[in-house]
Amino acid sequence: MRFRCPYCKEEFGSEPAPKCPGCGKVMLVPSLREPNPRVARRRKIENIWRECERRKAELQVALSPKLWRTPKFYVGVIFLLAIVGAAVFRATDSAVTRRVEPPHLVAMRHVDVLAEALGRYRFHVGVYPATDQGLAALARRPAGAPEWDGPYINQLRADPWGTPFVYEPPSADGDLPTLLSCGPDRVRGTADDIAPDPARFDPGTDWTNGWLSAEDRLPGVRVLRTLPEPRLRP
After folding, report:
1. In angstroms, rounded to a whole number, what is the distance separating the alpha carbons of residues 206 and 230?
2. Which residues constitute the domain of residue 112?
3. Is 76 part of any domain?
């Protein structure tokens, strides 16, 4: 630091002097003080805060429209869509694969369900449906069956190959009815016919404890449920 005389404007050395070496006038030079550390720290904090605000404002600036016209942007979008499409395709393919069931297994399950429904029909009515009534008697009350307490199936469908299930009532007391699917060839009496397990025609009496009559059922409510008191029919 250099000093200058306030009268003659002459500069002299870096050390303050009581008189000007040029004009000889007395000068009052203020004593040099050390900077206040508290003030210096406050100024540093203010500088840091200003820099933070400046960078925050830069980050909040809207994206330039030129960004949407660059090849890198479109490549990134295509890559992201490819990843999402592959993930959706894999999930859909896995779900479809799990839901697909071989037709013969579907037919076996259907004839078992029909056989069990026939057993429950016989438990209430006393006999299996007649030939003219057929399997439709499991879904709708037939004429001349006051003890009918169905429906025993939600709806009557064809087998997986589009052929109606074959049903014939038993020819004698104690015999089982004829129930089968004609199989892939749609011809009765061939090796690919699918018949139910004979034990399915005798559902036992455990299911009667939770059986609900047709007028008590509501859509979405399971047919069988546990009731506090069993209701057995002779």
Report:
1. 9
2. 103-216
3. no
pTM exceeds 0.70 for this model: no
160: domain CATH number is 3.30.700.10
Q: How far apart are CA 171 and CA 199, in angstroms?
A: 18
Is 192 within the bounds of a domain? yes
Cα–Cα nearest to 124, from 219, 225, 214: 214
Domain count of the fold of the chain: 1
What secondary structure does DSSP assign to the chain, as a single string? --EE-TTT--EE-SS--SB-TTT--B--PPPP-PPPHHHHHHHHHHHHHHHHHHHHHHHTSPPPGGGGGSHHHHHHHHHHHHHHHHHHHHHHHHHHHHH---HHHHHHHHHHHHHHHHHHHHHHHSSPPPTTTGGGGGTSPPTT-TT----SSS-----TTSPPPEEE--SSTTPPPEEEB-TTTT-TTSTT-B---GGGG---SGGGGGB--GGG--TTS-SB---SS-----
pLDDT tens track for 95-118: 655 567 789 999 999 999 999 999
pLDDT at 31: 57
Give the per-residue pLDDT at 218: 53
* CA distance linking residue 169 with residue 55, whole number of Å: 88
158 lies in some domain: yes
Q: Considering the domain boundaries, does residue 208 fall inside one?
A: yes
Percent pLDDT > 70 in the chain is: 75
Distance (Å, rounded) from C-alpha 45 to C-alpha 60? 23
Mean pLDDT is lowest, of 1-10, 182-191, 221-230, for 221-230
